[in-house]
């Protein structure tokens, strides 16, 4: 477990060039039903993040419910209109160290329900704008979301021992300068 502050966690991220050689999304098996309760990772995140809980029926079919997409400060009442965003996208994780992981480690990363910052329900529109970009290239459209986003990004990178490239590291330092330097606790996954 790491107890630090946002700015120190950013300073502690290893900085390295990225390499996308060999990346394929299929190398990160995702949306599994790890606890075998009938609901896959996507559904588990939707259930957990609902502002108003959906009804969960046989086969883990979700009906009703309300969610808040903090990236764009938008409420949504249709689960199918939401994407589950990997805070640090799979391609970015690959570029930042996951290329050296085993298939099991990549699956654990892609389905990480043990840290609520790893996966987040957001509007499909906002998630697709983000794609596989890091904070040097993309930020949430809701200005009030910036500090939370930078903190969660840094926590996930720290949790999984991922590096930042030079532009990303500089962007994180610059963005965090305008955020409270709050305490940050991260349980390491690796």
- The pLDDT mean sits at 97
Count of alpha and pi helical runs: 7
Rough shape?
Answer: globular
User: Stretches where pLDDT falls below 50 for ≥5 residues?
Assistant: none
Measured between the Cα atoms of the first and last residue, the distance is: 11 Å
Helicity level? 25-40%
Structural class: alpha+beta
What can be said about the biggest beta sheet?
Answer: 2 strands, antiparallel
- SSE arrangement, N to C: EHHEEEEEHHEHHHE
Overall tally of domains: 1
Rg, rounded, reads: 16 Å
Number of strands: 8
Oligomer: single chain
Give the strand order of the largest sheet, numbering strands 1, 2, ... along the chain. Answer: 1-8
Chart the SSEs and their pairings.
Blueprint: E1 2-5, H1 6-12, H2 41-49, E2 55-57, E3 61-63, E4 67-69, E5 74-76, E6 82-86, H3 90-95, H4 103-110, E7 119-123, H5 124-130, H6 146-159, H7 166-176, E8 183-186
Antiparallel strand pairs: 1-8, 2-3, 4-5, 6-7
Helix pairs in contact: 1-6, 1-7
Domain GmrSD restriction endonucleases C-terminal: 62-174
Protein name: Putative secreted protein
Pfam families: GmrSD_C
Characterization of this structure:
The structure is a single chain. The chain is an alpha+beta fold and 190 residues long. It has one domain. It is 33% helix and 16% strand. It contains seven helices and eight strands. The strands form four sheets. Strands 1-8 form a two-stranded antiparallel ribbon. A two-stranded antiparallel sheet has the order 2-3. α1 (6-12) runs antiparallel to α7 (166-176). The longest helix has 14 residues, at 146-159. It is globular and about 45 Å long. The mean pLDDT is 97.
